[in-house]
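Lecture notes, unit on protein representations.

Consider one protein chain, 282 amino acids long.
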Amino acid sequence: MEIKKITAVYFSAAGHTKRVTESAAKAAAAELGLTGDQICTVDFTLPAVRDKHPEGWSFGPDELVVFGTPTYAGRVPNKVLPFVQTLFKGSNTPAAAIVTFGNRNFDSSLTELSQKLAGQGFVPCGAGAFPCSHVFSGKIAPGRPNEMDMEEIQRFGRDAAKKIAGASGADMLKPAVIRGGEPVAPYYIPKGIDGQPAKFLKAKPKTDMERCNGCGICADVCPMGSIDREHPEQVTGICIKCHACISRCPAGAKYFDDPAFLSHVQYLEKYCREPKEAEVFL
């Protein structure tokens, strides 16, 4: 089948999912011979973008969508899932589903994303899960995705494109079977360093006001729009622990001090240091 346009779609608070998804999409585009305005991007991370497009985005049967999200607690982030289900609509549109994960496990996130895309009119004929450095700690999978990871990500994009190009039509594309067809499992329960459940859903980042210069970057990059720009020490809405405000703060003024959260970070640093491998399904 002929693909006339490819779009990289992603939610990427920390930037890893953006890099992975765009790289796979560019490789797929090169394989299909697409250039220029045939290659597009939809970054729906920030509220301003979502608010600007309340009607969402629609895609046709002669397009390929490479759709990426991070993994939170083994699933598509629960605050992101409604965006996937309401803002994006396919019309028998081929899709490659991508999730990133912080070197623990992607669990059911890739299956869940593929299923939701299928429910929105997409044909998820390829799926891939790729490890990245964990946003909670620089000690967990530092530097990933590395050069070898990027080669695998690009290979996934090319292989997905070949599969699509070789089909006579979207109706003939076989959906990717992920981990033998395992069903979506319950959310992963974070553990503390003592091995017991760590409850930190209400934890929010704090601000060292002696360091804060009032630049407002933390408010600008919060995907939930939860940080008051004039008073950055105030987190007035939901915090999804994405660490965008922490990683982007030029003054290093943002931090978490919740004991349960810090205990979970210790657990991850102790038990999730061994490098994990990507998994692809075509």
